[in-house]
Specification:
- This protein is of the alpha/beta class.
- The protein has a single domain (about 1-290), classed as Alpha/Beta hydrolase fold, catalytic domain (Rossmann fold), CATH 3.40.50.1820.
- The chain has eleven helices and eight strands.
- An eight-stranded mixed sheet has the order 1-2-4-3-5-6-7-8, sandwiched between helices.
- Helix 1 crosses helix 2 (about 100-110) and helix 6 packs across helix 8.
- The two termini are about 20 Å apart.
Length: about 300
């Protein structure tokens, strides 16, 4: 693994890389409450074919973490990765996102399609099906109630208290977390403990326009520009079926926005599938026909 600081739009970001510079690029985008180090086991598995890039996104780890909530709108988060793609090559890249990283990955695919050749999502959601599920007042609404807490003033202080006990509880969310222990857990605590980073991380939630109803009390569906929220690229959705944070109804109707969608379910995995089955997921990506048939020349 190689690491470096890279300037994006005039700000410093921390980047991990595997593979050969000049090879087809695979951009890996982490979610909450992780950081670019979440890919340290997975990234090397595809380094023989790709130049693998795993940044700490804005507000995370060793990357720039502005304090203002307005600095975390989707357009700004996507803009960071647009700058990264321009700085690391010319050809379109394969983009893979997990959790909140999926929001940025979808943004790149939808609003900067010339920069993205293929889109891979691992337990992440497109904004329209997810908004429908969050506003419906049903199971996904109930599963997402923690967002109200994260949007509250001072949530970052609660997360940091007692050696990040509340953060660990959020991570678990009734799911197997055997992988987060020992040295791995210490790396996460180090990332969370960087000055201003917990505030930056929860600011992603505060800046999001997504409407979250109360259980059993549906909210009207916001008026979204549906015609602009299309994914034209080949799209692979890898889904750990034991996820208790993102439920199946959060992806219902995704085909309406991604006509080239393939779905692969992993029945024994949960939201943290990248850590649970990194080799299996790497094999799935290698065998995915839109990549395998073109010899990974994206």
């Amino acid at each position: 693994m190689r690491t470096r600081d890279i300037s994006l739009n005039g700000q410093s970001f921390f980047l991990r890389e595997w593979g050969t510079p000049g090879a087809p690029r695979l951009l890996l985008l982490h979610g909450f409450p992780e950081f670019g180090g979440a890919w340290e086991e997975f990234g090397p598995l595809l380094a023989d074919e790709y130049q693998v890039l795993a940044p700490d996104q804005r507000g995370y780890g060793r990357s720039w973490a502005p304090e203002d909530v307005g600095a975390y709108t989707t357009s700004k988060l996507v803009g960071d990765m647009v700058a990264l793609l321009h700085a690391t090559g010319d050809a379109p890249a394969i983009v893979m996102g997990h959790d909140w990283g999926a929001a940025v990955a979808y943004g790149l695919a939808m609003f900067q399609p010339a920069l993205v050749s293929h889109l891979i999502i691992a337990n992440g959601v497109h904004p329209v099906p997810f908004q429908r599920a969050m506003a419906a007042g049903g199971a996904q609404t109930e599963a997402s109630q923690y967002i109200h807490f994260l949007r509250r003033d001072g949530a970052e202080d609660v997360l940091a208290a007692n050696d990040f006990a509340k953060m660990h509880d959020l991570f678990t969310a009734k799911m197997d977390l055997d992988w987060l222990s020992g040295g791995t857990l210490e790396k996460y605590k180090e990332a969370w403990g960087q000055p201003g980073r917990l505030r930056g991380m929860v600011n992603w939630y505060r800046a999001s326009p997504l409407v979250l109803a109360k259980p059993g009390q549906p909210e009207p569906m916001p008026d979204l520009p549906l015609d602009k929220l299309k994914v034209p690229q080949p799209h692979l959705l890898i889904w750990g079926e034991k996820d208790t944070a993102l439920l199946p109804d959060s992806t219902e109707g995704l085909e309406d926005f991604a006509p080239k969608l393939d779905r692969i379910a992993l029945p024994d995995c949960n939201h943290w599938l990248i850590h649970q089955e990194p080799h299996k997921i790497a094999d799935i990506i290698r065998a995915w026909p839109p990549l395998a048939e073109r010899g990974a020349t994206a």
